Amino acid sequence: MVSETVVDLSRWQFAATALYHFLFVPLTLGLSVLLAVMETVYVVTGREIYKRMTKFWLRLFMINFALGVATGLTMEVQFGMNWSYYSSFVGDTFGTLLAVEGLMAFFLESTFVGLMVFGWDRMSRGKHLVITYLVALASNFSALWILVANSFMQHPLGAEFNPVTMRMELASFHDLFFNPDAQAKFVHTVLAGYVTAAIFVCGISAFYLLRKRHTDIAQRSFRIAALFGVLGTAGVITLGDALGFIGGHAQPTKLAAMEALWEPEEAPMPFNISALPSQEEERNLLEWQMPAFLSILVTHSLDGTVPSAKELQEEAKGRIWNGIPAVQAMELLGKDPTNQEALTQFEQHKDDVGYGFLVQRYAPDGDLSRITEAEVELAAKDTIPEVWIIFWSFRVMVALG
After folding, report:
1. What DSSP letter does each residue of 203-261 carry, written as one string?
2. Any residues with CB less than 8 A from the CB of 53 and at least 6 apart, and which?
3. What is the model's pLDDT at position 172?
């Protein structure tokens, strides 16, 4: 059994790397498109000021691009270093998406970045503009495959677990790619990148305007970025609602935590604008509600409901008991993959195998046959994440939007 301290440290290390990496990814997505817009104005009007603008922001784009690549490579290494069993377990599916991203998007982007930087005096205006658009397309195309991979982790479609090989094997690339969560998440995230880049350009432009330096570039950059950001923000809000609608139904425990919804509510369900959730008492110590708004947001109707944390815990108890025989069958198959009795047992309970794993940490000496009702109760509580973190981080995100 792996030490929980090692697992926690691995999580902290990977979280720090992912967080640092994702400072640069949205900027790359948005700046690449803004560069294409600025250069288009230059090609259409022929005014040198727009060429200077494009070259200025290209320098910042390249710095950002280099840092994004460096931190991204570090994160790739940590997939194997921190999560080697996971990488082996889902490698057929998750690894396929990372490989496609590298071959179809990142290599394309890297190739055309060089032409974009060094090709100003070696190509015509039109050809260089095409290169810039290809860089923007490749950057966003790269995000598509990564977000499909992320959505597979959130809502795994297109793969099936093989109890003989003990791996998730790709079953349908179509289902994997057209995962509803992936499509909504891609557009939402890309648009958020556009907003991030717009704020970045507006901020630097405002700095130069206040200092009365390079005002000709700063004013034009500010105008383009402001319009770009306003349009992007409208898209982020719209697609954020769609993503919440899809994700909420795919991950009901996350939704219950996001809304601090402990007890069942009748339709139309109220929305907690503010609350003070208590995980220990499984209730909100304080709450400020907006009537009927949760039903409208999550079900797009006044008569829709979503399950509460306590309902989900009760459901989890039954699924844990049903999942335990699947885990026991997997242990037997690990020793003898030809064990037909174990394979039959696994097939009967495989839908809840993940729930069976939840209770392993409470099993006496790892023996699932000795699990008690009290230990299943503890495992069921583990299905609900730390509510106050998710509740308030969601509201901070909405407020920033």
Report:
1. HHHHHHHHHTSSHHHHHHHHHHHHHHHHHHHHHHHHHHHHHHHHHHHH-HHHHHHHTT-
2. 38, 42, 217, 220, 221
3. 92
E-only strand ranges, 52-185 = 159-162, 167-170
Give the torsion sign (CA, 319, 325, 326, 328).
Answer: positive
> Inter-axis angle of helices 215-250 and 48-81, to 10 degrees?
40
Prior bond of 268 cis (ω within 30°): yes
Query: What are 375's two structure tokens?
Result: 């230990």
Is there a contact between 14 and 75 (Cβ–Cβ < 8 Å)? Answer: yes
pLDDT in tens, 299-346: 888 888 889 999 999 999 999 999 999 999 998 998 888 899 999 999
User: For residues 401 and 396, what is the distance between their CA atoms, to the nearest angstrom?
Assistant: 9
Tokens at 330, concatenated: 């997997």
Supply φ then ψ for residue 145, to 5 degrees. -70, -35
Answer for the pair 98, 78: CB distance below 8 angstroms, yes or no.
Answer: no
- Per residue in 206-218, pLDDT tens? 999 999 999 999 9
Q: Which residue has the tokens 């994160």?
A: 75
Of the given ranges (43-47, 86-90, 273-277), which has the lowest mean pLDDT?
86-90
Coil vs helix vs strand at 336: coil
Q: Which of 191-225 are b and which e, b meaning 16 or more Cβ less than 10 Å from the residue's Cβ?
A: bbbbbbbbbbbbebbeebeeeeebeebbebbbebb
Q: Rounded to an integer, what is the distance from CA 361 to the centroid of its chain? A: 27
| Cα–Cα distances in angstroms (integers) from residue 343 to residues 6, 186, 242, 270, 337, in the given order | 32, 38, 40, 46, 8
Gap between the Cα atoms of 51 and 38, Å rounded: 8
Backbone angles phi, psi at 268, to 5 degrees: -80, 135
Phi and psi of 28, rounded to 5°?
-60, -45
Helix segments in 46-95, DSSP class H: 48-81, 84-89
